[in-house]
Give the backbone structure.
Amino acid sequence: MSKSWGNRLAWLPKLNRPVPEGMNNPLEIAAFEAETYFQSGNSGKSVFFELYPAMKEAYAIRKDGDGYVISGGQTGVLYGVYTLIRGIEAGETLPEGTQKPYYPLRMINCWDNMDGTVERGYAGRSIWFENGRFDYDPARIRQMGRMLASVGINVLCINNVNVHQPAQHLLDTLLPEVEEFAAILRPFGVRLMLSVDFSMPLQNGLSTADPEDVQVQDWWKAQAQKIWKCVPDLAGFLVKADSEHRPGPNAYNRTHAQGANMLARAIKPFGGVLVWRAFVYNCLQDWRDTQTDRPRAAYDLYQPLDGCFDENVVLQVKYGPFDFQVREPVSPLLYAMPKTPLALEFQLAQEYTGHQIDLFAMPPLWREVLDQMGKEKVCAVAAVSNLGRDGNWFGHPFAALNLFAFGLYGWNPDADPQKVIAAWVRNTYTLPASQQDTLASVLLGSRKTYEKYTAPLGLCWMVRPESHYGPSPYGYEFQAWGTYNRADCRGVGIDRTEKGTGYACQYPKEWAEVFASPQACPDELLLFFHRLPYSFRMKDGRTLIQRIYDDHFEGCREAENMQEALKTLSLPEPDREEALQRMDQQVQNAREWRDVINTFFRRFSGIEDEKGRKIYD
Ligand code: GCV
């Protein structure tokens, strides 16, 4: 649990006056923010607004004498003020022309349970649920609204996609409280979304939840009417169905399109969007079965349904075919559904990427994903939240970067990771320029470092089962989750080419060809697509086993260097102490990974490190 910052914002500390209770108009808030900022050290600037309601979220900023004019829609003006302040803090030039978000839906998915726990949450308990009900400090929710608005995020799904009781009541008895919560965030341009349980009709007296059953359809329609009457701008529903033991249309021999469309039709009259997750696979696999290949699952299930979904359905696809691993190829489904609106799903919560203890700045990963798939393949972006009740919101003070950056990518998917990271540093800390550069460069390299000391070359799933922190190279090997590396004394990896499971053939031809050949396949994905002997020669002439050893020694040394670099920074407290404490844990984690992975592979391969470094027996 991190020390309290009170209700401080995670970035833009100069916005040091809380938005007053009762200030419910975006323009009023925009004026308040401008006044707060320009009074605190940037005096002499005036900011005028020109309201064009039709511009909605869009805005334009122009200089006017000594001050600025921001024109835009209601929310647009608010976004414009934040962009202006962020830009000044980052030392950037003003954006030219009208700014509008590239993705209309920019969603945060919170996996908060009503008992106050957060599934895969690493920043403390839920900020708004406790003991089966809403329990929050409205001032903190306003601060959160401000943070979300300051980076242009516009939808917050407040409950876990694994819907546990009593979360169903968010859709009935708790609706007035949902509306109270929605009302706090509304002025910040943030609309709520709710995760719903597909089998809800069964808990409400119906004998079926079959989407083709008229009674079921009518029940959802009546439900939608009640819900939108209470929360008129609810963004929609988020559904995890037929996945990891959640109910879904399969039970009635219906397709996912039939399931999703039934719900979509119920909420359509109210402008609701039905976000249906494509994270579906066989989680009861027998490890002896080498035919079933989990990464194939989503494409096999959904690709034949392209064109069958209603227009207010958005199919939400995780960036990789597994599950938010450190390195995965882009999901082939993202190329294969041209007739279906898609959302790209990221995970800010660092489930597999260091639990908000180890540093893992995500923009470089997102850049690669967006470049490989093409930003236009999706119409929305979603990210699993990394927020929690901890004083600093994120557990690790630097984990705030990932929420900040996600917002910016929703507006500009072409953003340069280096610039985004530098902007976060400057928007968060007042440090000498050289220290800002040091911190930005530690963050920029953090993903690569983490990758080097964990599972090698796209192998995935070497984390400890359940906790997903720390090394356990065979921990998932005989489990039912479809997560195998099949390492033995002859080699490691799974052949996913045409001769193997055929997964690589799910890609468009140009990528299928690259992935099919161990010589053409990018090194970092080699063991995702191929089963190779330890003596395999990599592009740079090293053997596979030597590359694994080198990466693990290098990754660990880089973590130690990061620690030295962080010690030189004059960060404010409590951030300094918290960052250094966590860095200490990260270094220990990196050493453990290095030694476990190197020993694991030396035991199997019987091959020594060419450089004679210490590998344990
Ligand atoms: C919400 C992974 C996580 C689960 C999560 C699931 C999902 O399997 O470990 O905790 O459940 O992804 O994305 O639905």
